[in-house]
Design a protein that fits this description.
Layout: H1 10-18, H2 28-41, E1 46-50, E2 53-57, E3 65-71, E4 84-86, E5 93-95, H3 99-115, E6 122-128, H4 139-146, E7 155-158, E8 166-168, E9 172-181, E10 185-186, H5 201-209, E11 214-217, E12 220-223, E13 225-233, E14 239-240, E15 243-252, H6 258-268, E16 273-280, H7 290-298, E17 303-305, H8 312-316, E18 322-324, E19 339-341, H9 342-356
Parallel strand pairs: 3-6, 3-7, 7-18, 8-17
Antiparallel strand pairs: 1-2, 2-6, 4-5, 5-19, 8-18, 9-15, 9-16, 10-14, 11-12, 13-15
Helix pairs in contact: 1-3, 3-9, 7-9
């Protein structure tokens, strides 16, 4: 089994984590290594195992609790293992699968778990599995069902890559299918049929003319979006199609509930057959909460809105403010050239140590 030194430089620990293969559904060996390291090197923590998730926490009786959460799995390998380094000084880079998404964040949390035995807040560390696959398999869902008390706190910090900047809350996302119907006919006698693909012209025009909301919440700007992502239809090269489907993705600000967002989309496509296929709620930034304000101050007083969807929404649904804070450029996640600035890993560790310690 791989041995991890949790007291090492967080950048070195990131490289060690990257070198342990942990594609979704194959996180077991990394979870084994994380569990063994926490039990050996962080005796001040209560540690439990749940599937291929490892949870640890202080029980110091503090007046507040912070949850630090990071997933252990990665997307499939793409010629980017083992880890390697390039550059030097402030420009030193660590390359490799998961270096951005999100073993840099995991390394920071593990390092703090072992080196911060007496934090100002009680701290829960959650290293979970199956984040990069279908939401139904996400380890946080299983933990919520089986060990709900382990996800309770006054603030949740998810270590997803955020360029080392606090990204508060997140937008919600939903997908709908707009369906049109027609009548089949031979294209040589097209007037005898009704083209379902042509009938999508109306919904597409509404999308082209749509003006998304720009919403200010706690001083953060969330930009909504409504975009066509797929069109399907057609029978054969000489047949007028009798059915077509337009798939639309709506990213909505966290001041709207999923029901409100769905109602809005149905209003946009009024008069058409609309089917909701997927929805996940957003998360309000909660910057006014005391623990959140402390962390923002420790990070220099700056925060940005999270425009994508992350697992902060799962914690927000449990009734606590949640934010993203981790090293790495999220645009590099899942790419062959995934890499993270070594200095950024250390910066995130320093900010969290200042906040917690």
């Amino acid at each position: 089994m791989t041995s991890l030194d949790l007291r090492a430089d967080p950048a070195d620990l990131t490289a060690a984590l990257v070198d342990v293969f942990s594609v979704s559904a194959q996180e077991g060996p990394l979870a084994d290594a994380v569990e063994a390291a926490l039990r050996e090197q962080a005796p001040h923590l209560e540690v439990v195992r749940n599937g291929d998730a490892v949870l640890a926490r202080t029980n110091l009786g503090r007046g507040s609790r912070v949850v630090l959460a990071g997933h252990l799995d990665t997307v499939p390998e793409n010629g980017n293992l083992p880890s390697r380094r390039s550059g030097s000084g402030d420009e030193e880079l660590l390359h490799g699968l998961g270096s951005v998404d999100m073993k840099g964040g995991d390394a920071v949390f593990l390092h703090l778990a072992a080196t911060l035995p007496d934090p100002r807040h009680d701290v829960t560390f959650v290293f979970y599995d199956h984040e990069e696959v279908e939401a139904v398999k996400n380890g946080l869902g299983r933990i919520e069902r089986e060990l709900p008390e382990w996800l309770a706190g006054d603030l949740a910090v998810v270590g997803e890559p955020s360029n080392g900047v606090i990204e508060a809350g997140c937008q919600g996302t939903l997908r709908v299918e707009v369906r049109t119907s027609g009548t089949r006919a031979h294209t040589a006698r097209a007037w005898m049929g009704e083209n379902a693909i042509h009938a999508l012209a109306g919904p597409l025009r509404r999308l082209a003319e749509y003006s998304p909301r720009v919403v200010d919440i706690d001083g953060l700007t969330y930009r909504e979006g409504l975009q066509a992502t797929k069109i399907s239809g057609g029978v054969a090269g000489n047949v007028v199609p009798d059915a077509a489907v337009l798939t639309v993705n709506h990213r909505f600000a966290p001041d709207r509930s999923p029901a409100q967002a769905e109602a809005h989309v149905r209003e946009v496509f009024g008069g058409h057959d609309v089917t909701l296929t997927d929805v996940s709620p957003g998360a309000l930034p909660g910057l006014s909460a005391p623990a959140t304000a402390e962390l923002v101050a420790a990070a220099g007083g700056r925060a940005a809105a999270k425009l994508g969807w992350t697992d902060v929404a799962r914690f927000a649904a449990l009734g606590m403010p949640a934010l993203n804070f981790g090293p790495g450029n999220p645009s590099l996640a899942h790419t062959q050239g995934e890499h993270v600035r070594v200095a950024e890993i250390r910066q995130v560790a320093d900010v969290l140590r200042k906040f917690l310690g």
